[in-house]
Structures are given as C-alpha cells and as structure tokens.
C-alpha cells in the first residue's frame, strides 16, 4: 500500500514513525512547511506541497494529521480519489462540509477510521467489559477530569502559535481534548442533553482553556467532564458510579480497578506488560491498515467522529447561550 500523511506536526511525525516501524516503506508526505519540527528525520521521505500533487502519486490510504480546521481540505479530494483514511480527531471544527466528505467517501468507495486512539486503551476496554457484565449494577453517573499544562506540551514551539491555541485552526480545549466525548458515548450510549461553561481566564488565549460539561445520557446516566490546559501535574481520570459499586481508570498509572459492594473490596487490573502511550497509536495504525485492506470493520467510524463533533458543537452553543442544549443525532 502507498500511504500519504497530511501534516508533519507532532501527531503526523508519530504516525509516520509508526508506519515505518510496522514495515510500511511506501510513504509520502503532504506538508506546507509551517511545522516547527526539524526536517532531518524526513530527508529521505518524498514531500509534496499541494494536495493535488500528492494525490497524483495515487496513494491508497491517507492519514489526516494537519490542523483540525484544514482536515476537510485534504480529506474530500482524497476521498473522491478513492483513498481510505485515518482522520485525527476531531474530524473538523464545524459541521460545514461533513456532508461533502460523506458523499466523497461513498463515490470513491474508501474506508474511514476516526482517530480516537483511546478506543485502543486496554484500561478503557476493561471498563467496557465490566459495564457489559454489569459489574457495578445500574450505572448512575460518570465523571472525567482531564487537565494538562499546554505550555509544556511541545517545548520546541511557542504554545500560543500552536493549533491548540488558535481559533482559525480549530483549537480550544473542547476540540483538542475531545476524547472523553467519544469514549463516554462509546461506553455509555447516546447523549440526550448538554450544558457547559467555558473560560480562557488561565492562559488568556483567543480560545477556551477550561471547560466544564454536564451530560445527560438517554439511559438516564448523568455525566460531567472537566477539561483544562492548566493543570500541573496533569491528570486524566474516569470514575463511573453504579448502584452496586464503582469503576476507576487512571491514564497516568494505566491502572483500572472496580469496587463491588458484594465483595466490599477493590479488584485491580494493571496494564499489559510493556504498555506505553504509543501502543495505542500502534494498535490504531494496525487496525487502520486492516480496515483499508478490507480485512476489518472500523472500531471508530465516521459516524462516531460526527457524533463527537456534534457534541463539541453543542458544548460551545451551551456555553455561549448559557442554556441547556438538547442533543439529537
């Protein structure tokens, strides 16, 4: 297979290195030379500076890793050309153009995976297993806290110029840290309504650096999600409370545990031996290759990506209007 990677920021570099590590040698880059990364690592990789020139190489698969607001500019023509694609989350910063992407994928007959890599997290998969077997009875509430200090993410660049900080590139903490919107929908089902407040008080950016989100699921479960660009040290945890116990997942320790009232004790599941953050991305890439070859069905579909985007858009509307937003896919 011939792979095209659009964008050479930190996530584009990760996907490139993972493809090479998996033995894929036919890889091409489309980039506009705005990345702040050194080009020493890609001196032997072919590079094109327009999507038209890149597609002239007739790639089979596209990895969309450029800034969020620019995703559809490369995805739509690539889909029309028949590419299958792995698109980094969120799939866009707005709904405009999503219908054209859907039509292009249909006409080009390509396959699609949304890049929410936490779908491949062994701890969250353990959470899914416990929920399916009703380990904690009826789920009542879910609580996510995710905070990381944005100025420390990429020491090689000024965080104020990164896409995470810029409205024109689709930044903001809600879009950038939108994973919980996806994995809560995956684990707990459809959302009925959303309320939220946001602030840029911490870093004084043009986008929000803090958000508090309230969710009501169709099942009756209540959820709350806190996101911020501020917290030192960072934290990313999930707690799910049920009628018969509690589930805890901690991304930092990669430990997942469940308390059941019947046993009156915690059961702890450590991560697999050798597990590290990049394992999720490697598993995601292996999965994408299998999907592109027609050997597997996507674990995170375009429809899942659309749902997460619509949830993020509902968060912004709720925060702007100061009202509850009824969410109906």
Describe this structure in words.
The strands form two sheets. This protein has a nine-stranded mixed beta sheet with strand order 14-13-12-11-7-10-9-8-15. A six-stranded parallel beta sheet has the order 3-2-1-4-5-6, with helices on both faces. By secondary structure, the protein is of the alpha/beta class. Helix 1 packs across helix 8 (277-292). It is globular and about 60 Å long. The protein has helices at 10-21, 51-55, 71-80, 98-108, 122-132, 173-176, 179-188, 277-292, 302-321, and strands spanning 3-6, 27-30, 47-48, 61-64, 84-88, 112-115, 139-147, 191-199, 210-217, 222-228, 235-242, 245-250, 255-260, 265-269, 325-326. The mean pLDDT is 96.
Mean pLDDT: 96
Number of helices: 9
Main sheet strand line-up: 14-13-12-11-7-10-9-8-15
Looking at this structure, what is the CATH superfamily of the largest domain? Dihydrodipicolinate Reductase, domain 2
In the predicted model, the low-confidence regions spanning at least 5 consecutive residues are none
Count of distinct strands = 15
Q: What's this model, at a glance?
A:
This protein has 329 residues and is α/β, with parallel strands linked by helices. It has helices spanning 10-21, 51-55, 71-80, 98-108, 122-132, 173-176, 179-188, 277-292, 302-321, and strands at 3-6, 27-30, 47-48, 61-64, 84-88, 112-115, 139-147, 191-199, 210-217, 222-228, 235-242, 245-250, 255-260, 265-269, 325-326.
């Amino acid at each position: 297979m011939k792979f095209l990677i659009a964008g050479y920021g930190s996530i584009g570099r990760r996907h490139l290195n993972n493809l090479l590590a998996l033995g894929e040698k036919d890889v091409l880059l489309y980039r506009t030379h705005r990345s702040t990364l050194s080009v020493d690592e890609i001196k032997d990789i072919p590079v094109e500076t327009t999507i038209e020139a890149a597609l002239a190489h007739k790639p089979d698969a596209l990895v969309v890793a450029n800034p969020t607001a620019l995703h559809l500019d490369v995805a739509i023509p690539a889909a029309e050309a028949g590419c299958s694609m792995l698109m980094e989350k969120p799939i866009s910063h707005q709904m405009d153009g999503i219908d054209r992407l859907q039509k292009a994928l249909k006409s080009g007959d390509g396959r699609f995976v949304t890049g929410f890599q936490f779908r491949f997290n062994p701890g969250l998969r353990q959470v899914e297993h416990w929920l399916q077997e009703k380990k904690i009875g009826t789920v009542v509430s879910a609580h996510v806290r995710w905070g990381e200090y944005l100025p420390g993410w990429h020491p090689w660049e000024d965080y104020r110029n990164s896409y995470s900080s810029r409205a024109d590139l689709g930044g903001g903490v809600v879009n950038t840290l939108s994973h919980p919107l996806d994995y809560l929908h995956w684990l707990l089902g459809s959302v009925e309504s959303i309320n939220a407040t946001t602030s840029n008080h911490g870093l004084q950016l043009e986008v929000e650096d803090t958000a508090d989100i309230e969710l009501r699921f169709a099942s009756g479960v209540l959820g709350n999600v806190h996101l911020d660009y501020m917290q030192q040290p960072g934290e990313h945890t999930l707690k799910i409370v049920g009628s018969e116990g509690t589930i805890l997942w901690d991304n930092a320790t990669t430990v997942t545990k469940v308390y059941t009232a019947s046993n009156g004790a915690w059961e702890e599941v450590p991560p697999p031996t050798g597990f590290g953050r990049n394992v999720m991305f490697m598993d995601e890439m292996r999965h994408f290759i299998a999907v592109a070859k027609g050997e597997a069905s996507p674990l995170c579909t375009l429809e899942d990506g659309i749902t997460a985007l619509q949830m993020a858009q509902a968060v912004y509307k709720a925060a702007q209007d100061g009202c509850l937003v009824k969410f109906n896919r």
